[in-house]
Amino acid sequence: MIDQKPYEAVVLGVELGSTRIKAVAVDARHTPVSAGDYTWASCCENGVWTYPLSEVWDGLRAALSGVAGRERVAAMGVSGMMHGYLAFDADWNLLTPFRAWQNTMTGPAAAELTALFGFNIPQRWSVAHLWQAVLNGEEHLARLAHITTLAGYVHFMLTGMNAVGVGEASGMFPIDSEALDYDAAMLAKLDERIAARGFAWRMRDILPAVLPAGAEAGSLTESGAALLDGLLAPGIPFAPPEGDAGTGMTATNAVAPRTGNVSAGTSIFSMVVLERPLSRVYEEIDLVTTPTGAPVAMVHCNNCTGDTNAWAGVLRETAALFGAPPDAGELYTKLYEKSLEGDADCGGVTVCNYLAGEGVTHLDAGRPLVARQPEGRFTLANFLRAQLYSALATLKLGMDILAKERVAVDSLTGHGGLFKTPLVGQKYLAAACGAPVTCLRTAGEGGPYGMALLAAYRVWREDGETLERYLGDRVFAGVSGSTVGPDADTVRGFEAYMARYCALLAVERAAVEVL
Question: What domains does the chain contain, in order, with CATH numbers?
Answer without folding.
Answer: 83-148+173-206 (3.30.420.40), 306-441+485-514 (3.30.420.40)
